[in-house]
Design goal:
Length: 368
């Protein structure tokens, strides 16, 4: 992390040098505005660097929202084949130029910056006399930061700083607790609003597990910060609060420029947990049950429709001697067994015709 400490310190000190020339040691409202604006400068620098990545993050989220139906279809198709499912999903991401990891990239880059700034800004205090010139700091920078205050509260102090340390720089625990409490509340509120803005613009996830993660991020992180804010130096709380304010403005601009996919009210699925949602799930289960009942069993061919359709009965045509052409008599009694009728071959029909002709001639001779 030394590279992060050096980089953040260098940016912070360059911004402080700039604003020190502007204010020239003058303070208003018991505040060293050169250090306040130097911390704001770190936020601006980070936001300018991350802005292209933030735009790509929003674009990737929009692409993922459009691909949601196709991803769901792939999950149903390859439910038992995880390896094939992963390959198909990666191919879909590549084809549509969507990257699910882009949603985490800006956060992953901001974390080292925050940790480095936390380390750098908590080091200066009246009791620290060693290593005061690390990370491009000079002794003059160190001394001015130790004496710097925000409305009378030192930048290095926290909500839990003892009164003896504060007395050394002409401050009191009451002033520090008031400033740290107001700043901490602002930090927690802006964190909640930033997360809420992103969730409302991108929409609540339909998957129950992902929806639970969204709720933890929305409500859980601010609750955790209530306890952790007391350990943050005021300088770090300034950075976090200002960073959240920039995030709100930046997200509003980018989300307005890249709105979520339009979804009509009729096509919008019902909210999970409602009666309409339960009814939709029941209809889906019923449709799936009917589909399984109508589907042919494994290894069995479906019967053709023609085989199940009864053929209309045809009256047999009587021959000259009162028998039918297909080998039945006028009463409909079939003669000749299984080989009779139109199913006979040509040779069999000729032989039968000769036999019938001979029988007729013999009958005439007997009558004569």
């Amino acid at each position: 992390m030394e590279w992060a400490y050096d980089g953040v310190s260098w940016v912070l000190l360059r911004w402080h040098d700039l604003w020190s020339n502007v204010f020239d040691g003058n303070q208003a409202l018991a505040t060293d505005w050169a250090w306040v604006l130097a911390i704001v400068g770190v936020v601006i620098t980070l936001r300018v660097i991350l802005f292209p990545l933030f735009v790509k993050q929003i674009q990737s989220q929009r692409a993922m929202q459009k691909l949601a139906p196709e991803i769901k279809a792939l999950q149903e198709r390859y439910k038992g084949d995880r390896e094939t499912l992963q390959k198909e999903m990666m191919e879909l991401y590549r084809k549509e130029k969507a990257n699910p990891l882009m949603g985490c990239l800006p956060i992953l880059i901001q974390m080292p910056v925050f940790l480095a700034l936390f380390h750098v800004l908590r080091r200066p205090d009246p009791d620290q006399t060693m290593n005061t010139t690390l990370y491009f700091w000079t002794q003059s920078d160190w001394d001015t930061y130790v004496d710097a205050k925000l409305f009378g509260a030192p930048f290095w102090s926290t909500f839990l700083t003892s009164g003896d340390q504060l007395a050394a720089v002409d401050s009191t625990p009451l002033v520090v607790k008031l400033v740290a409490g107001v700043l901490g509340a602002a930090m927690i509120l802006t964190t909640f609003l930033t997360t809420r803005q992103m969730i409302l613009k991108t929409g609540w996830n339909e998957d129950p597990n992902q929806r639970m993660i969204q709720k933890v991020m929305l409500y859980g992180i601010p609750v955790i910060m209530i306890f952790s804010a007391g350990a943050f130096p005021i300088g770090v709380v300034i950075y976090w609060t200002v960073n959240n304010l920039f995030s709100l403005a930046q997200q509003q601009y980018v989300l307005h420029k890249y709105p979520p996919p339009a979804q009509s009210a009729s096509a919008k699925p019902p909210k999970p947990g409602t009666k309409a949602h339960e009814k939709m799930l029941e209809e889906q289960r019923e449709a799936e049950r009917r589909r399984k009942e109508l589907a042919p069993k494994p290894g069995k061919r479906p019967k053709p429709a023609a085989a199940n359709t009864p053929k209309p009965k045809q009256d047999p045509k009587p021959s000259a001697n009162g028998s039918s052409v297909n080998g039945s008599d006028g009463a409909g009694t079939v003669k000749g067994g299984p080989g009779s009728g139109k199913n006979l071959s040509r040779a069999e029909r000729i032989a039968r015709a000769k036999k019938v002709s001979g029988a007729q001639q013999a009958s005439k001779k007997k009558k004569g």
